[in-house]
Structures are given as C-alpha cells and as structure tokens.
Amino acid sequence: MLIPRQKTPNLSLQTLDHGAFDLSAEKSERGTVICFYRGLHCPICANYLTELEKRVGEFAERGVTTIAISSDGEERTRAMADKIDAKGLRFGYDLSLEKAREWGLYISTSRGTTSIGIEEPALFSEPGLFMVTPEQTLYYGSTQTMPFVRPHFSELVGALDFAIANNYPARGEYAGEV
Known about the structure:
Elements: E1 12-14, E2 20-22, E3 31-36, H1 43-61, E4 64-69, H2 74-83, E5 90-92, H3 97-102, E6 107-109, E7 123-125, E8 128-132, E9 138-143, H4 153-166
C-alpha cells in the first residue's frame, strides 16, 4: 500500500511525443498528476481523459504537470490520444503489470470485445489517480476496482487551490498500530 508523505515507486516509461518520462527526474513546482487508465478499449477512459485534457492548463498554472498512463502499447496509446484530440496531455505507454501492482492498481482479465468494438487486452490495470510531490512522495491517491465513479478533475484543481493557500499536508500518513 502506498502511504502519503512516503516515497512512491519509481516510474519510468516512454511517452508518445515527449520522450522518456521518469518520475524521479520530473521537474515541476508542486508535483505531478498521474492518471492511470485502463486502455483504448475503455469508453469511460476516453471521456475521463477528455476531461483531464481540458484541465492540463489549470494544473500547469498551479505548478503541476500531468500524464496519462496505461499498459497499452504505443499504437493503442496513439489511438487513444487521437480519439480525445490530445494537445497538452502527455501519454505514457507500456506500463508493466508488475509496476501497476507496485502502485496499488487492481488487475483485470479480458472479457473480450467491449461495447465500442475494441478487444480488451488479456490483462490490464484498472484506474488510479495520484498526485506526487516534486520530492516523489505521495500527496493524493485513489484506486478503483471498476471503470466507474472516478474522482473529478475540477475537484482536484479546487483542492489544490485550498492546499496551496493553506499549506495543507498530505493526509492518511499514519501507518502505526491501531
């Protein structure tokens, strides 16, 4: 389990148009929003990433970079970026399922062709949304077992405004006995 205020796992992979992404070398004033998505086969992911694409500038204004990542290969990732008409959102690809598990993501098995006619991979990770500080510690995290009911990016932007104005620390950091 990832613990707020503790270092996250390393994360290095290729992106579509921005070269290699390495979380430990990421340069931002306040951190990085990492959106793990299921893949091209997921119509809910396309809608969700469209919303993130609309908010990339708002995150950047607050000193936060953004990236969307899946275990899809380069071709399927490009198809997703094209599908949502991505202009500012970085897309990482070839996330290993071992790395997905390190981040606490749930893994699902294929159910065949989806409602939009795209074959699911044999195995893929379910969604997760994280904000990692410039020091690579966890500030915010959310994982799901299903593609439904995801955190709203508008709420995350608003929460960032509150956190910045009030120097609000990451919560959920206690890992002692209960």
